[in-house]
Design a protein that fits this description.
single chain; about 325 residues; little secondary structure
Length: about 325
């Protein structure tokens, strides 16, 4: 089927083109709102600036298809193959992309607000500057676990996104906005979150081992039982964060702001907290074996029952600090 035949039949009221072979077809800027292209072959097709609002493209082959600037709002792309597709600047607001193959896809500046991406494979995709506010990438019965390994989400907008249990290992999220996002149990090991905004984010039981969070904003974030072993948090702002039972073994946290942070039972063994701000932090039962607190500010912090027998406190400010034995330092 060529473009002329498709457009003529669509203009005559036909909307369902199941299994249609449209390989390499040129549909630049056309209006195909609500069209049904289930299992269609659109490999290498040109759909730049086309209108595909509410289109049904379930199981369609869109490999290497050019959808730059296309409107796919509320479109259904369940199990669609978008491998290496060009979606630069495309709008996919509220689109259904469950189990879609988006490996190596170019989603630069794409709008995926409120899109359903459960089970989608975004490995190696370029999501630089993309908007994923309210997008759903949560794990659901494992079969719906979104995969974003190696994806580029530099400066992406993920405010309020549901990434519960998502695989984000080694993903580039530098400068991304993840405020109020749901990342419970997510795998962020080795991820680049330098300069990211994670204010109020839920990272309970998340795996952030070896992650780069230098300069990140984690104000009021929830990191209960999170694994931050060997993570880099130099200059990070964790003011008011909740981190009980978190693991921060060998973490690099020099100059980090941990004021008013809840750090009870945290494992800081061999961590670097030089010049960190721990003003009024709750460190009850914390484990500080060989922790470097040189020049740290522990004013009014609570260290009740903390293990500090090998802690380096050289030059630390211990004004009004509650020490492990309950005494107050002056």
């Amino acid at each position: 089927m060529d473009a002329k035949e498709l457009l003529q039949r669509y203009a005559n009221g036909e909307t369902k083109f199941i299994d249609a072979n449209l390989n390499g077809v040129n549909l630049f800027g056309v209006d195909l709102i609500g069209i049904g292209l289930n299992q269609a072959n659109l490999c290498n097709a040109i759909l730049i600036f086309s209108y595909l609002n509410r289109a049904i493209l379930n199981q369609a082959n869109l490999t290497c298809t050019n959808l730059g600037g296309a409107n796919l709002n509320q479109a259904s792309l369940i199990n669609a193959n978008l491998h290496d597709a060009d979606l630069h600047g495309a709008t996919l607001q509220s689109a259904d992309l469950r189990n879609a193959n988006l490996t190596l896809a170019d989603l630069l500046d794409a709008n995926l607000m409120n899109a359903d991406l459960r089970g989608a494979d975004l490995s190696g995709a370029n999501l630089t500057g993309a908007c994923l506010r309210g997008a759903n990438l949560r794990e659901e019965k494992r079969a719906y676990c979104a995969t974003l390994r190696g994806a580029n989400l530099h400066k992406a907008d993920l405010r309020g996104a549901n990434l519960t249990g998502a695989d984000l290992a080694k993903v580039n999220l530098s400068g991304a906005n993840l405020s109020e996002s749901m990342l419970r149990g997510a795998n962020l090991s080795g991820a680049n979150l330098s300069g990211a905004i994670l204010e109020g984010a839920a990272l309970t039981e998340a795996n952030l081992e070896g992650a780069n969070l230098n300069g990140a904003n984690l104000i009021n974030a929830r990191l209960e039982r999170a694994n931050l072993s060997e993570a880099e948090l130099v200059g990070a702002n964790l003011q008011g964060a909740r981190m009980p039972d978190a693991k921060l073994t060998k973490a690099q946290m020099s100059r980090a702001n941990l004021s008013f942070t809840r750090l009870s039972k945290v494992d800081f063994s061999r961590a670097n907290l030089r010049e960190a701000n721990l003003t009024e932090a709750d460190l009850v039962d914390a484990y500080l074996a060989r922790t470097d607190l040189t020049g740290a500010n522990l004013t009014k912090a609570s260290l009740i029952r903390a293990e500090m027998s090998t802690t380096n406190l050289t030059g630390a400010n211990l004004r009004e600090t509650i020490m492990p034995d309950g005494t107050i330092s002056y």
